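Reopening this one. Same input as before:
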Amino acid sequence: MTRKGWILFGAMAVLWGIPYLLIRVAVRELDPGALVLFRTAPAALLLMPVVTHQKAWPALVKNLKWIVVFGVVEFGIPWYFMSTSERHINSSLTSLIICAVPLFSVLASRFTRSHEPIGPRRLIGLIAGAVGVALLVGLDLKGGSLTWIGLMLVVCVGYAIGPIILATKLHDVPGPAVVCGAASVVALGWVPYDLFHWPAHISGETWLSLGVLSIFCTAGAFLVFFELIKEAGSSRSVVVVYSNTALAVVLGIVGLHEPFTIGIALGFPLIVIGSYLATTVARGVAHDTNRDANLPIYE
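Same output, byte for byte:
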């Protein structure tokens, strides 16, 4: 991966590593449905000038049906389930489960006509990263609920289906237009529910969490991530999830007082090694990053 790719990769690790902590803070006062609205509506408004600058409104309207479907499976349902789960399981466990997304994505890509080859080197990297995350978090199923873990697996499925829709139905639509349209639809869809679940009080800490989630971790992150996909390709970009988890665990320890384990000391090196192997190409192997430039996977 190029130097620019690594810079974008590092930026994404931060932008999608901090939401786990922020969601955990926000759901103390907000219903998960309200959190989805507060995260998507400002992001949609911020991306509208970008869509206007790109003159992408006709493409958005023309492909609205599939943008709606994408929004539901990528934002509407997963973000509600994730926020609900974070009321019952800690941020480290949540981030660990999300790390199953690259494996779901690799499997899902087998059913599309445009997918990147997964050679031994990259497969070892994916496995090493997954093992590193497992050690890092020190997953203990007895400490969580199977119900909430099950909801998080549904989130992983949604995150795997979303890119298939992008690759097969929305590949010619600019990324900001897709995200703006999807976020708008999801926000409007949650309004009726939120009218009956509106919080009685929102503290300054929660407002700050919502602002960072929407402005930086959604609108800003998507713009950065589309650039990362163009630079490095979709399946290499997806392993940023491993770095997300590393940061999520650090923030969990510092901000939420989650326990430090031996797995953290063992897991970090494996995550670094796994990310490197999974994002580099063996000599002599050409890679076309343009063919799937609109195929992302999200936090």
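So the earlier flakiness isn't reproducible anymore. For the record, DSSP finds 14 helices and no strands in the chain.
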